[in-house]
Prior knowledge:
Blueprint: H1 2-37, H2 45-67
Amino acid sequence: MEEQKSSKIQTILIGAAIGAALGAVAGILLYQRAEQDQTKLQISGSDGVKIGLGVLTVLRSIADIGQRK
């Protein structure tokens, strides 16, 4: 039982670390692009929807992997 709890916590922590790292990289890339174009960083509503749908697609894919046996 303890081993299962430890594995669950480890999986959650690894997922959180990967998510934080990917978020940081995304922020860096957005900032660099705005700097390159010499424009102010702006994300429109449609950009937000695209990002949200992309994240949901990735989460759905991860959930599907977890269901395969």
